[in-house]
Amino acid sequence: MEVFLTSPWVPAEIIRAHGHRPRSAWPATPNRASAVPEGVCSFAQSLLSLAESHPDAALVFTTACDQMRRAADAALARSRSRIFLFNLPATWQSPAARNLYRAECARLGRFLTTLGGPHPKAEDLLSVMIDQENRRAALRQFIQRHPARLAAEALAGFYSEGIVPTAPPTDAIPVPRGIPVALIGGPLLPSQWSLFDDLESTGGRVVLNATEPGERCLPPPCPIPSPEQPPLPALADHYFDHAVDAFHRPNTRFYDWLGPRLHERQVRGLVLWVHVGCDLWRAEAASLRDAFHLPLLTLDAHVESTGGLRDTNRLAAFIESLQ
Ligand code: SF4
What we know:
The chain is of the alpha/beta class.
């Protein structure tokens, strides 16, 4: 069965090990969400449209934000048997939060067996973990060597179908130009990838994609547990320890992840990508300015597309100010 994940912080390995097909919600959300009520995040709303348009698939929502919880409530009211709400702890510094996360991974496994998947043996999960890790390693290499739009397409292919593109010879890769900027924020959907082109056409270049699913969502290499160790707690701990997101309290891990990368890549400006109705990411604008002392432009995102001419003009003015 297809199982859509609405967050990068739920291990797809668990779904694969239970014989289902993990797919991520970002590339699959309909380009046109149903009318979005005022104050509602268009991405969260689009997940409801996704649930409706895939009646034979299951969806895993999380408690990462209130909007997502509300979307999950609405989806559960319509179809309880194929919707799973994963309790993603907002805190991460206590053993209780870690134990909750581990318990949720185990509960997800039980849910997947109710959908007809077999209960996997430890070696089945281990072999999926190794395979997934190999794919991630190839993806990391691809991202390092390719411009941001191609990297975003590769990430979408990996999260959606598990596909990792093969890298062309190094000399086939065009040398990127433009003022280096970091793109930070919530979900960036395929219908919104023209943002990369808009940035380039205005003289900028994305050197760090910290949106969802960007580089921020790729955990570092997962140590493979020895055959004597149960693999599920090791997998759960790895995701728990390396989730980098705005919903955490405190969200210092996000800033600790961002800081060295902004420095290494000589980023000169930040573009904050915020879905209309998303207070979580919007609230980061002031903190990001304070933390990194870099100029910041906030762009409002709608599910359908980027903001058109108005945003292009704002981007052009922003990039010009960084010259
Ligand atoms: S974009 Fe923001 S409000 Fe929408 S689901 Fe993500 S975190 Fe929640």
